[in-house]
Amino acid sequence: MFRNLLSRLFSDMSETAALPSEDGEVAIAALLVRIARADDRYSEIEKRRIEMVLARRRGLDHNEAAERRAAAEMIEAEAPDTVRFTRSIKDRVEIEDRRNIIAALWEVAYADGSRSAEEESMIRLIAGLLGVNDRDSALVRQRVLDDLGISGLS
């Protein structure tokens, strides 16, 4: 199953057809996992935040979101470098949803209420790879901080 998904994600990039909805969401979930693991501390609070984001994005219940996160953990561990992984999403996801993905990444990065240079650096890389400019990423980041009620991290 996971090999098939990886094959679909990294298939001929000249075919810019949209990812099937479920494949796209697992790929996005895998990016969320990659961010949470970027600082080598993948905490329960980050796992729960990923599940909340996944549930909110597609109306999943708690069990479905937990299953999708678990699948994403396996996909993320097998996925190639972030550049290729992100490109496969960029070529198949509309720009507005890419901004929403960046918001979700910031939300996961700040789930534990602290800054991590590794997570922030990875999000900046991913934002650029997804075609979201620095200004838009910064605006999204500030909105997420405001929504989470976190101050002093901007």
TrEMBL record:
InterPro entries, per database record: DjlA_N, TerB-like
Xref: SUPFAM superfamilies: TerB-like
Domain named Co-chaperone DjlA N-terminal: residues: 26-142
Pfam families the record matches: TerB
Protein name: TerB family tellurite resistance protein
Origin species: Paracoccus aurantius
